[in-house]
UniProtKB/TrEMBL annotation:
<protein>
    <recommendedName>
        <fullName>histidine kinase</fullName>
    </recommendedName>
</protein>
<feature type="domain" description="Histidine kinase">
    <location>
        <begin position="1"/>
        <end position="154"/>
    </location>
</feature>
Length: 154
C-alpha cells in the first residue's frame, strides 16, 4: 500500500507542520524547521502520516514553552529526518518497546492524553515499507529524538 515516487520531503514536512502548528501554538511550543531540499523515494500521503504521528507525540509529551525541532538533510546517500523534543523523555528500559502495538509508557501518566498506543507501530511499519529505518534516543526529563533514514529519489 506504499506507492513510492520521487517526493519533495521538505514539502511533506512543511505540510505536516502546517497542520499541527495551531495545536503547537495553543500549547506555546515553538516548532523550528531546519530543512534542506531533499527528494526521497516515497509515498507522500504515508510520509505525512509518519510526520504527523511523530509531531503529535512531540506535542503530547512536551511541556509548554519548549521547542520541537525538525531537521532534514542528506547523509551518505540517505535522507535523514530528525524530530527532537524537550519533553518528558522515556526510560532506557522502555525504549525497546516503544514501537510495539498498544504499548504506552506508564499507562496512568498517559491515560489523559487519549491515545491508543498505535502511532509509533504504524510509523515503524510505514518507514520499513519504504525500505527505511527509524531510531530513537531519549533521556528522561531532557527529551526525545526520533531519526528516520529514507532512500533518496536518485
Ligand atoms: P497514539 O496511538 O494516539 O499515537 P500514543 O501516543 O500513546 O497513542 P505511540 O505514538 O505509539 O502511542 O507512542 C507510544 C508511547 O511512547 C506513548 O504512549 C508514550 O508513552 C511514548 N512516547 C512516544 N513519543 C514520545 C515522545 N516524543 N516523548 C516521550 N514519550 C513518547
Ligand atoms: Mg502517538
Amino acid at each position: 500500500q506504499v506507492k513510492a515516487q520521487p517526493t519533495d520531503m521538505s514539502a511533506v514536512i512543511e505540510r505536516a507542520a502546517g497542520m499541527i502548528q495551531p495545536r503547537m501554538e495553543d500549547k506555546a511550543i515553538l516548532l523550528n524547521l531546519q530543512l534542506e531540499p531533499v527528494e526521497v523515494l516515497g509515498d507522500p500521503d504515508r510520509l505525512i502520516q509518519v510526520m504527523m504521528n511523530l509531531l503529535a507525540n512531540a506535542l503530547t509529551y512536551s511541556a509548554s514553552e519548549t521547542t520541537v525541532e525538525v531537521h532534514l538533510f542528506k547523509e551518505q546517500e540517505e535522507a535523514v529526518i530528525r524530530v527532537k523534543d524537550q519533553g518528558i523523555g522515556v526510560e532506557t528500559s522502555e525504549i525497546g518497546r516503544l514501537f510495539e502495538r498498544f504499548y504506552r509508557v506508564d499507562r496512568a501518566r498517559s491515560r489523559n492524553s487519549g491515545g491508543t498506543g498505535l502511532g509509533l507501530s504504524i510509523v515503524k511499519h510505514l518507514v520499513e515499507a519504504h525500505h527505511g529505518k527509524i531510531t530513537v534516543d531519549s533521556e528522561v526529563g531532557v527529551g526525545t529524538t526520533f531519526t528516520i533514514y529514507l532512500p533518496l529519489a536518485s
